[in-house]
Amino acid sequence: MKNTFYITTPIYYVNDKPHIGHAYTTILADVLSRYHRNSGQETFFLTGLDEHGQKVQQAAEKRGVNAQQHCDEMAPRFSELWKQLHISNDDFIRTTEERHKKVVQNILQEVMDKGDIYEAEYEGLYSISEERFITEKESESGEFRDIKKLKEKNYFFKMSKYQQALINHIEKNPNFIQPNHRKNEILGFLRQPLNDLCISRPKSRLNWGIELPFDSNYVTYVWFDALINYITAAGFGSDDNAFKKWWPASYHLIGKDILTTHAVYWPTMLMSAGIELPETIFAHGWWLMGESKMSKSLGNVINPMDLIEDYGVDPVRYYLMREMVLGQDSSFTMESFIQRYNSDLANDFGNLLSRVSTLMKKNYDGKIPEPGKLTNAETIIKSKGESLAKLVKEKIESMRLNEAIEEIMQYVRSVNKYMEDHAPWKLVKEDKISASRVLYTAGEALRISAVLLSPVMPNRTEVLLNALNAKNTGLEWGGLTPGHELKDHEPLFPRVK
Ligand code: MSP
């Protein structure tokens, strides 16, 4: 087992500005990266942009600028959003960078030299919108636009040669494609004979791409170029030590719409080039707007920037991670967003901090009070806190993030209940020592919850830990230090309408 953790997002097309779907995958990768980093694992988190191909060329033409200029203008929209969302990526790859072009050309040459690329005249139906040849059956499905008949000389990658090897690999490595229903989908697809993959586009038709090293009249197919980003950034061909350290990737996170390219094209390309396959390709579902798919043409896309402006970064991250069951589709509605915000964040989590810190400030000179001798009630809170860390670890490592978050929130709710039951605001008037014990216990349980939630809400949990003067504390019970001064803080999550 590798001791390092390498996680990737898809690289996004720069034909449009980022929406909540792109933000989702990137936040998910960020949460997992932060989690692994906090657990002491060396972590490499990659995201980036897919800048070649017809879609990007057309978007540039529409704006009346050249393609490179278009990419250069669009790239900051993504990197700015990632900054706003507190994404902690270690690299941001753009496929128009020299470092990437070199690797793509090397791989093309390698695969060619191996005899896995051949030239052929091909006549078939070509979907301009999908930028590839489609089958008769696909053309009848109605899912493809701009179809025309094309007869062209092109280069083909012998994907079919690796069909059986791929099936064997999937069967031997149950985690290779996740969740399981996606693995079965790919195995089903592989029951049919696999076609070879057309990997060239004549420059007469499309010139915005990486030139084939063995024929300057062609550029390579955008997917053959894009997928390779995952090894370029890990140091393939440029830094052998880095590549040894990071590859194979632990996770390629993707949306279900790009499963075939990742679970069929990419592994067969790697097999041909003699490179190890990634450990896990994990496909999540779609964010729907109410019932329908989010799309620009339907005019129902949510702009993450607007949400951040209105509600702050952490609630957006929280909502997306809490609501989606990984692997299934999820529906985004403003009502459920506001509801989650007010009930989980304002009422349960934020309110607990303000209660605890106000009472400590008022009755214990603004300092963390003594934990005292635990009674049964505190022992329960303490041992729940200790087993929570283990439970959360299990849930996160099996990609059940929504459940992990729900476990933490249930704990927070039980601590609120404990506060209600022991009413330290009353108790303090009769028995200051017992009230001190209750407040310490509640504060400590809150601190542990914040540490566990910090990969999801890095900002607000930092404010909270600061307020309790418990920065950089871990998961062990007893992180709050009696006598430490409490710090002033802004309300964590002011209620919204
Ligand atoms: N450029 C390719 C990926 C190449 S990876 C080597 C691409 N780009 S994309 O910009 O169109 O979208 C990429 C990803 O965005 C999707 O796979 C998915 O992860 C995410 N999403 C886009 N819309 C989405 C939703 N409505 N919901 C959730 N995620 C979706 O495909």
Question: What labels describe this entry?
Answer:
497 residues; alpha/beta; Isoleucyl-tRNA Synthetase, Domain 1; 6-stranded parallel β-sheet; 4-stranded antiparallel β-sheet; 16 strands; binds 5'-O-[(L-methionyl)-sulphamoyl]adenosine
At a glance:
The chain has helices spanning 20-38, 54-63, 67-84, 98-113, 136-140, 163-172, 180-189, 222-227, 229-232, 240-246, 259-273, 304-311, 313-323, 334-363, 376-397, 401-422, 424-430, 432-453, 458-467, and strands spanning 4-13, 42-50, 91-94, 117-127, 132-134, 147-157, 177-178, 197-198, 200-202, 211-212, 215-220, 251-255, 280-284, 287-289, 292-293, 330-332. The protein is an alpha/beta fold.
Name of the CATH homologous superfamily of one domain: Isoleucyl-tRNA Synthetase, Domain 1
State the helical fraction.
Answer: 40-55%
Low-confidence segments, given as residue ranges, are none
CATH architecture identity of one domain? Orthogonal Bundle
CATH class of one domain: Mainly Alpha
Distance between the termini: 49 Å
Number of strands: 16
- Biggest sheet statistics: 6 strands, parallel
Spatial order of strands in the largest sheet: 3-2-1-12-13-7
Q: What class do helices, strands and sheet pairing give?
A: alpha/beta
- Spell out which ligands are present: 5'-O-[(L-methionyl)-sulphamoyl]adenosine
